[in-house]
Amino acid sequence: MRLPEQTHAGLVAAAALAVTAVLAGVSLKLGGFDPFQAGAAMVRGSLGGRSALLSVTLVRSVPLILTGLAVALAFRAGVWNIGAEGQLYAGAVAAVWVGLEGGGLPAPILIVAVLLAAGVGGAAWALVPALMRFRMGVGEVITTILMNFVAIYLAAWLVHGPLQESRGVFPQTEQIVGAARLPPLVEGARLHWGFVLAVVLAVVLWAFVRWTVPGFRIRAVGASPEAARIAGRINPDKVALRAFLVSGALAGLAGGVEVAGVTFALYEGLSPGWGYTAIAVALLAGLNPLGVLFTGFLFGALQGGAGAMQREAGIPSAWVGAVEALAILSVLAVDQIRRRRIPILRAGTVVTQEQADD
Amino acid sequence: MTKERPAAARLSGIRKAFGAVAAVDGADLLVHAGEVHGVLGENGAGKTTLLSILGGSLRPDAGEIRIGNAAVDLRSPRHAWDRGVGMVHQHFTLVPRLTVLENLTLGFRDAARGWRLPLDDVRVRAEELMGRTGLSVPFDSLTENLDVGERQRIEILKALLRNPSILILDEPTAVLMPGEIERLFALVRDLTDRGVAVVLVAHKLDEVLSVSDRVTVMREGRSILTAPVAEVERRALTRAMVGREPEPFSRPPAPSHGKTVAELRGARMLGRHGEWALDDVTLSIQAGEILGVAGVQGNGQRELAMALSGVRTPDGGSAMLPSGVGFITQDRSREGLIPDFDLVENMALALHRRAELRRGLLLDWRGIRDRTAAAVTRYQVRTPGASTAARALSGGNQQRLVVAREVAEATDLLVAENPTRGLDVAAAAFVHEELKRLVRGDGDTGMAAVVLISTDLDEVLALSHRIVVLVRGRILAVPEQARTKEGLGSLMLSVDHATA
User: Fold this and answer.
1) Chain B interface with A: residues with Cβ < 8 Å
2) Furthest CA-CA distance within chain B
3) Residue A50: is it exposed, middle or buried by C-beta count within 10 angstroms (0-12/13-18/19+)?
4) Interhelix angle for A107-136 vs A84-101, to 10°?
5) CA distance A233 to B353
6) Average model confidence (pLDDT) across chain B
7) Which of B37, B169, B45, B91 is nearest to B421 (CA)?
8) What is the C-alpha to C-alpha distance for residues A171 and A156, in angstroms, rounded to an integer?
9) DSSP 8-state assignment for residue A1
10) What is residue A6's three-state secondary structure?
11) From the list A211, A219, A227, which residue is nearest B337 (CB)?
12) How far apart are CA A88 and CA A132, in angstroms?
């Protein structure tokens, strides 16, 4: 039944990726680099070997998948949550706080407590813009962006002040206790159980949106709040508010998983902007949670390969950020072109629709 | 009447497909200067598509368009404008957050004024036009605060401001009151006397026949016949439209006294501007009756529908409502359906509330799909399949889906708000039959009640067991001797005159 919509999303993503690749190649060429050498370096650095894959790319894709899911869920509900970055930091702070205090709890319980704290922290951070939107009518695009700065600098203050490690030298907290850490998934690699959690959550969220009552309500409210209210007798504000909070919790979880699985401490600049890249991840995935698995992995590879590209081809790793932005623009452009009924793209969708009806 | 006039526009062999479905396939239309040309056809017959092609908002896949004597390729509405073709769309094209005057000025270009907005010029010209045509609109109000009747007048005024030589009116009468319709037709006559060609689409056959010189009938994307009104029989037209003759209205038998299914007591509802849009309304509705609610648009009908359907709780007083309430909203595409959702999901908007279609948190999608398939068959929704997006359906078929869904919900009460607006004869008759079936209570459910809120007085008179009139948010009962169009009309305007 959902095949046509997914086919649309797949077509859009494929076309957008092709456009992005061409634009990225052209920009490298104009900068005097060899695009093919750069591409090869990127693939080697991200996928070429056990260590690249298991210690770099997949590890980086975990927070991208989790924040990507957060953004996808919010956007599905018509909530423009641009605040995954801030919610991630709020989650990381909450996770570190629980992980430092530990309290002698055994590992499984403490890990669950750390992750729960991260989710609650992210949701709490989303609660402020959520209440501002649904109680006072303040647009969440602005408020979530602004809350990002508050969270980033709050975390910075914490690691320079009250939570700074005991020697007072580095801008970071003490390490969380061993029992609060996510165990490695593969011996000898940095990949941790957070990856499994991200994959499971993506599948769960996909099934939730597709098959459950609250998931259907979220889709209805996102597609048309008026029809949801009148034909569906759904309270759109209530549904969107809940989706907003769950979105915040998912982003917070990304911060908690990063702390418990990778850094074991809170740093200034913990996230290289995952909460923003998450918007590209979600849009490229057509807001489909399963798609987020793939696009999250893709952007993880892009970021993972950036280092190798810099070493081998001399291309500044910051260029990857520009490619991510190009990807967002390409998705939006391709989607608009499809909506305006360009025959080539539409012809494909009609065929698949007929197949779906058979 | 039939003297030879020059051709104003000629469409021949037009074809236009959306996806795999051809909305128009092999349609011809010849419009003479100075005539009113009626275009008739069921919903989905391709009328709007054909006229949008002449209006420049759609481009045909095949066929030729000639305006005057020149073959043209109309690439945009502005392009059509420049050739003297103006179109008043069925769905409004006004910007809600602009004032009426700003909307009138939108797209209006005056080379002499350069980049300055010609607001004052437009005001002067529009005032002059208002005086001549009797179309009055509040220039400085925000458009979003106006009701559909007022918006319709703005659209017509906007089109006339540019002195079109061909004016297309797509369903202009659907939202107008009887007096306004007559004024509009007088205006149309005035225009044709000046040599303007007017193409008129209306869903009521009588209206089209009363004003048109010639008519073209469309069915399934083709033009079936074109003839002078004076030379063609009404029956022949209906047959050409639907392939058979429509059933006449018949008032249902009066109900035996049913139990009260819904009741408002002193109900008050706030309107958009903080006024009491519904003011101290006490109303009780019995099973087995169709209660007609007449009134000029914007006298509290919307709020009454919201209160009776349970979408909103009254701001004062009380509402006693049954559990099984269906609601056919007048704003089908915004409130009744989600255009991007497929038919199954649109059915699920109501069905997801049913306990028997849930398994804990999960929805029983198989069950919902089965019911959708059954509804599509039973209500003859013309669609390629249940997984088609609702936006791909014609207006009439969308309405069939909404009616199917809401009638199934209405085990006790159905609130129907202008349920046949914009529908053709056959589709409207179908909706009326469904309303009557609900109150008869045959089939699988017991006897329900229907509240029919409509600006179409013919419909209210033909179907209702009991009629009330809404005037400025208050209910007036209609005595038996006032059960005529004139009687209702004077009641509808009564308080307006007393308090003005």
Assistant:
1) 19-20, 309-311, 327, 329, 331, 334-342, 344-346, 348-350, 352-353, 358, 361-363, 365, 369, 384-385, 387-389, 402, 405
2) 72
3) exposed
4) 140
5) 9
6) 85
7) B91
8) 8
9) -
10) helix
11) A227
12) 20
Within 8 A of B334 by CB-CB distance, chain A residues are 224, 226-227
pLDDT score, position A2: 36
Out of A219, A227, A357, whose CB is closest to B335?
A227
- Average pLDDT score over residue span A306-315: 85
pLDDT at A260: 95
Average pLDDT over residues A61-84: 96
- Using a 10 angstrom Cβ sphere, with 0-12 exposed, 13-18 middle and 19 or more buried, the burial of residue B67 is buried
How far, in Å, CA of B228 to CA of B471, rounded? 41
B239 vs A91: CA distance, rounded Å:
69
Q: pLDDT digit string (tens) for A163-211? A: 888 888 888 999 999 899 999 998 888 999 999 999 999 999 999 999 9
The answer to whether A232 faces chain B, any CB pair under 8 Å, is yes
ipTM of the complex, rounded to two decimals? 0.85
Instruction: Give the CA distances from residue A320 to residues A20, A271, B92, B380, in Å, rounded to whole numbers and listed in that order.
Output: 12, 15, 46, 54
pLDDT at B248 over 60: no
Q: Of A238, A197, A205, whose CA–CA distance to A220 is shortest?
A: A238
In angstroms, the CA B179 to CA B191 distance is: 19
Smallest Cβ–Cβ distance between A220 and the set B335, B338, B358 belongs to B338
**Predicted structure pTM score:** 0.76
Taking CA atoms, B18 is separated from A257, B61, B219, B266, in Å, by 48, 10, 17, 50
% of chain B exceeding 70 in pLDDT: 90
Q: Render B377-394 in DSSP notation, one character per residue.
A: HHTT---S-TTSBGGGS-
pLDDT band at A125 (very low <50, low <70, confident <90, very high): very high
pLDDT greater than 80 at residue B497: no
Going by C-beta distance under 8 Å and a sequence separation of 6 or more, which residues neighbour residue A115?
A95, A197, A253, A256, A257, A260
